[in-house]
Every structure is written in C-alpha cells, then in structure tokens.
Design brief:
This protein has 493 residues and is mainly alpha-helical. The mean pLDDT is 81.
C-alpha cells in the first residue's frame, strides 16, 4: 500500500507541478514558493517532534502499557498544540514583518503574498497538531489508511488543478486557499480515524510532566540531527552557488529531486518495518529483533537498488528524455547522490532500532557532524581545485562514515545485537548482487546504442537479478513457497 501510494504520488505530482506552474505563471509560482518557503524552514522542527511522539507511542504499545500509552498520547497532543501556537505567534509577528519588508516581490503582489502567507501559517498549525495522530496511525501499523490518505491528498491536488483552470479569479490566492483545505480535510480524517479506531489514543488524561520532559529531550537531540542534515543540504547548494553560480545550482537541484523521489520509494518500505522494530525492542524480544532488522534492510535496499542501478547507467538518456536540455554536471551529480543515498537508506533501518532504545544523543551528534562536514569538505576541495564532480563526490565517503557510525552506536545501545551477522548476512550479499548486476549492465551497454531499447534491457536485468536474489536468498522457505504458488496460480488464469 505504501509503495502504491508513492507511485501514485510521484506520477500525479509530476503532472500537477507542471500544470500549476503553467496556470499560475512563473511570477506567481515564485511568490508562492518564496512565501511558503519561509514556513518550510521550520519543517525539521516538526519532523523531530513527530518522530519523538511516534517513537514513544509505539514503544508503550509494544510494552502493552495502556496507562503510559494514554498519558503519552495526551502529552504529545498538548506539546504539539503548544508548539503550533508558539510558531504561529512567531510567524504572525516576525514572519509578517519579513514578508512585508524583506521579501523581494513583483510590484502589486504584496496583498496576494500576505494572503498566501496567512493560509500557509494556518496550514502549518494544522500540520503540527496532526502529527501525533499520524504517529499513532503508524504505531498501530494501519499502513492501509496511511497510504490511502496520501492517495486522497494527491487526488485532491488534481482537483485543485481543475479548479484553477475553471475559476476566473486571483489564481495565486485560490491555489493557497485550496491547499489549506487539503490540510484541513487530512486533519479531520486523521483525528476521526484515530479517536474512533484506537481507544487508547484519546485526550482522556492530563499531560504528564515527566512524559513531556522525555518527549522534549528526545526531540531535542533528534532536532540537532535533522537540522544538521537540512544545513548540510542547503550548505552544499550555497557552496556550489558561491564557486560556480546558479547554473550548477540547477544541476544540484535536479539531482536532489531525483534522489528524493527514489529515496521515498525505499523509505516507504522501511516505514512499514519501523513500528515492528520499536515494538520488538519494547517487549525485549531481542532474538526476534535481529532477523527483523536484517529483513527490513534486505527489503529496503533491494527495492532501492533495483530502481537505482539501471538509472545510474542510463542517467544521460533518462535525464535528457525528462528535461530536454540537461544542465552541465547534472548527470555526474545525479549518479553520485544516488550512490551516497544507498548508505542513507541502509542507515534508516538502523536508525529505527537506535531510536527504539531512546538513547539517541551520541547518534544524533555524530551523524549530524557528518552532515555538517559535507559542505565544509566541498568548500575545501573547491579551494584546492579538485574539480566539480570530484569535489561533489565527497558526500559518498561521508555518507558511508555516517552509516558506520550508525552500526557502532547500534552495537553500543543493544549489545545483544550481532552487527557482524547483519553485515555479512545482509549488506555484503546485497553489495555482491549489485556488483554482478552492474557488470552485466556494463556488458549490455556496450552491445546497444543509447535509447529506449537499452533502457528497457538494463531495467529488465536489474529486475531479474534482484528479483532472483530476493526470492532465493531473502525470503524464507514458507514465504518462497507461497509466492511461487501465487505466481503459478496467476500463470494459469
């Protein structure tokens, strides 16, 4: 369901973004991006608070402690409500001043910009308050509802596109108002579903001081990691802009867009395993936790590498097909960022296990430092005239270092976990099949000219290689028999 949600979301987003840009025009779309971007700067704060809420709700659900579960949910809702009020006050004072005095806007568009800003502030408020409810849905593993809600949001975005084309009014204000309505509909659905479906996730008890303290402590350290990652990504863009100008920023932006899309597919799979990992740790069934981490890693990495391996080889054709005119360095940057992201994907599963322990201070600080080192290292390499692509590639070893740190912290936090077994039983086999797939793909690339036929063949090679590896080396005997039986049944239909 999560994978289907991601596919639908990507397809519709590619379409709607193009139509919205054409309908609003470059100037209005730029105003919306700039104004809404002011709100988006605090996204990492809400991410940290949401992560803390989801972790504690899942933890007590795994322990079967309904008293602490009720107390945690009520405390999480209260904390998020206070955070939403605090951020609203900040944006209604400093934010309004910034929009009216500092933001560079086309003449005559200040009124529309203020409307956009107000709608964005209300959307932010709703998004923050909704976070504990979304965390509860994930904690109870209601992935079907979670995925369906995301698909509903995407369908509503399609409806927005239709209404923009039909109504004759200020389309920028209309677009902002309709976007707010999507947030309101989502909030209503989440709160109704959680309060009616999960009896322990209702505001039935007063917030607990110790629980609030634990939530804030956990989210504080997680905030450093998320903020460092955001600074690292933005820092890369600033360094590139400083040395090479806006043209190379465009290449970097396209590479990040491709990376975000493919990473989203892999994270959709990992998200389904996250509640199970936390619950296994909470119940102290460590003997079941290790194979669960291995399975989650195998599923997540195989899904990511199946998509990425042919794309790395066919990047010039795919990017030219999508963009037409491909900015300089885009192909090289896309290949590098996709390789580096493989370590981030592997780390996500490990991160779930580390967060399950609640001991994230050392992990957040060290991985945050790795993120901050990326733009710093890029700056130093540019100073040494190392070349654009060679300098950009520094993110690969630093991402690998962050992954190694994750493994070390996992072993420290959960000493009964056999990290060596996970590496030899999961990471090394996946690396081996990736290498074998790459060798076959290189051979095929020498046989065919660049084009649709070669793209189809390389994708087929990736699917076959990883598919066979998945069936015969990842699935257990029972799952393998069930899968083969279903395939056999389908073939006779």
């Amino acid at each position: 369901m999560l994978y289907l949600r991601m596919i639908v979301s990507v397809i519709v987003s590619l379409y709607t973004s193009r139509v919205v840009l054409a309908t609003l025009g470059v100037e209005d779309y730029g105003i919306y991006s700039a104004v809404a971007g002011v709100i988006g700067m605090i996204a990492f704060l809400n991410t940290s608070m949401s992560s803390a809420s989801a972790r504690f709700i899942t933890f007590y659900l795994g322990q079967g402690d309904t008293t602490m579960l009720k107390r945690t949910f009520s405390s999480a809702v209260t904390v998020h409500l206070l955070l939403a009020v605090f951020m609203t006050v900040i944006f209604e004072t400093a934010g309004v001043w910034y929009v009216n005095n500092m933001l560079v806007l086309p003449e005559g568009s200040l009124t529309a910009a203020n409307w956009v800003f107000q709608f964005a502030v209300i959307s932010m408020f709703i998004c923050i308050v909704q976070s504990p409810y979304a965390g509860a849905v994930i904690a109870y593993e209601s992935m079907d509802f979670y995925a369906c809600m995301e698909i509903v949001n995407v369908i509503l975005k399609l409806l927005i596109v239709y209404m923009l084309l039909v109504f004759d009014c200020n389309k920028l204000i209309l677009y902002s108002a309709l976007t707010l309505m999507i947030s309101a509909v989502s909030f209503g659905c989440y709160t109704f579903y959680v309060t009616t479906r999960f009896k322990d996730c209702r505001l039935s008890s007063r917030p607990d001081r110790e629980t609030v303290k634990s939530l804030l402590s956990f989210s504080g350290f997680d905030l450093f990691g998320n903020m460092s990652n955001a600074v690292g990504v933005q820092g890369y863009a600033l360094v590139l802009n400083y040395f090479l100008g806006a043209a190379v920023n465009a290449a970097n932006g396209i590479a990040i867009l491709v990376q975000g899309t493919l990473k989203g597919f892999a994270f959709s799979i990992a998200l389904a395993f996250r509640p199970q990992i936390i619950k296994q740790y909470a119940s102290q069934t460590i003997e079941d936790l290790q194979p669960l981490i291995k399975t989650a890693t195998d599923y997540t990495l195989c899904m990511y590498l199946t998509l990425v391996t042919p794309l790395i080889f066919e990047a010039p054709f795919v990017l030219s097909l999508w963009l037409g005119n491909v900015p300089q360095f885009t192909v090289g940057m896309t290949r590098i960022i996709l390789i580096a992201t493989a370590f981030n994907v592997a780390s996500f599963v490990i991160n779930s296990a580390i967060q399950a322990t609640g001991k994230i201070r050392t992990y957040s600080i060290l991985t945050g430092i790795c993120s901050l080192l990326q733009p710093l290292s890029l700056f130093m390499l540019f100073r040494l005239d190392a070349g654009v692509i060679n300098s950009y590639a520094v993110m690969i070893p630093l991402s690998a270092l962050s992954f190694i740190v994750s493994l070390v912290i996992l072993k420290i936090n959960i000493c009964r976990i056999n990290v060596t077994a996970i590496v030899t039983g999961s990471y090394l086999p996946v690396t081996a099949v990736t290498f074998a797939t790459s060798v076959v793909t290189v051979y095929v690339c020498n046989l065919f000219d660049e084009g649709w036929l070669r793209l189809i063949v390389t994708c087929g090679i990736s699917i076959v290689c990883f598919g066979l590896f998945f069936i015969f080396f990842i699935l257990n005997n029972q799952s393998r028999r069930q899968l083969l039986a279903k395939l056999k049944l389908r073939s006779h239909e």
